[in-house]
Design goal:
single chain, mainly alpha, Serine Threonine Protein Phosphatase 5, Tetratricopeptide repeat, 3 domains, globular
Length: 345
């Protein structure tokens, strides 16, 4: 394992930080200082700047993942760490422990156990070996207790959050597999059924998914979220008139739930009803929907096409700063394929 500088780790002490002198040193050091002042947004900006200056240095993304862990963005942290492992292999073996720690926070105990064991196997004299041992002890005890006292509500939340993450990042096959498992446990949970049909369509089984959705909508003609799915499917297949006909039925639908209102706004956007989409987006509470990547993708494109160029650029830049998943994406008005998907059903 490389030993240039260990930067910082969760709950570390400031006097243990030993930033190294290299091209990105200044910004990395500023990021460390901001971290210990609990200015996490600023820490992320500085470390990202250091990474931009030296993209081959694995230390920077590793430390960025720790900031995400500190603010509770465990999925984002693990995405970064998996990229570090993919690019640098076992040179940064500590990534396995950090991933295990994040999975434990998410309640995905079997995954946490898997990565803790991997870390101990690969780094028998590693810096986090004793912490990994302690984590495994807790995980073993917790898993044993869960076998006797399984908490259905906690499990439901884990399924919901993990499915949401995969859908946000358009990992449709992974989301589909997870939802298939969830539907075994919760066969009547309509949200999982809706998401499953969406994932089924965009993971390749288009005709089957479309027929399932049509069958469901026929039995539940007022299910506007089923309409949202059908609009996306019809638009993807080029059946624009069918998509627009369904979208017209949404004009008098004004749900209280902000995420449902977001879906309706996106539906108007993808069929080209920009003015209606704009009004819907404008009525949203950004605070309640800003965790949806689609909010930034679709709303920014609507603004751009309505001639609000600077507003579109500002909104998407804000989204890129907030979400790592958007940081490598092209501006959405340049990406035609984005208009076919609502991403986070």
């Amino acid at each position: 394992m490389k030993t240039k500088s260990k930067g910082f780790k969760p709950n570390d002490k400031l006097n243990n930080v030993i930033p190294y002198i290299q091209e990105g040193d200044y910004f990395f050091t500023k990021g460390v200082e901001a971290f210990y002042k609990r200015k996490f947004d600023l820490a992320l900006k500085f470390i990202k700047k250091a990474q931009d200056m030296d993209p081959k240095e694995a230390l920077y993304p590793s430390q960025m993942s720790i900031v995400y862990t500190e603010i509770g963005a465990y999925h984002a942290a693990n995405q970064i760490l998996n990229e570090v492992i993919e690019q640098h292999g076992d040179d940064y073996v500590d990534s396995y422990y950090l991933i295990a720690n994040n999975y434990a926070h998410l309640g995905l105990l079997n995954e946490a156990q898997k990565y803790a064991n991997l870390y101990m196997e690969k780094a028998p004299e590693g810096e986090f070996f004793s912490e990994a041992e302690q984590l495994l002890t807790v995980l073993d005890m917790t898993l044993e207790e869960e076998e006797e006292f399984f908490d259905d509500e906690d499990d439901l939340i884990i399924y919901q959050e993990t499915a949401f993450y995969h859908l946000q990042h358009q990992n449709y096959k992974e989301a589909r597999q997870l939802l298939e498992e969830a539907l075994v446990v919760y066969p009547d949970f309509e949200s999982f059924q809706l998401q499953y049909r969406y994932c089924l369509y965009f993971s390749g089984e288009k005709e089957r998914a479309l027929q399932l959705e049509k069958d469901y909508f026929e039995k539940h003609p007022h299910a506007f979220l089923s309409m949202v799915n059908l609009i996306a499917f019809y638009h993807d297949q080029g059946a624009i008139e069918k998509a627009k006909d369904l979208t017209s039925q949404l004009k008098n639908v004004h749900p209280i739930h902000q995420e449902h209102l977001l879906k309706i706004a996106c539906s108007h956007a993808i069929v080209g009803e920009l003015d209606e989409a704009y009004e819907r987006f404008k009525s949203l509470s950004k605070q309640k929907v800003s965790h949806h990547l689609v909010y930034y993708r679709i709303y920014a494109r609507v603004l751009y096409r309505l001639g609000e160029i600077e507003a579109a650029k500002q909104l998407f830049t804000e989204g890129q700063q907030r979400h790592k998943g958007l940081s490598t994406e092209a501006e959405p008005w340049l990406n035609i394929s984005e208009s076919k998907k609502l991403d986070d059903e």
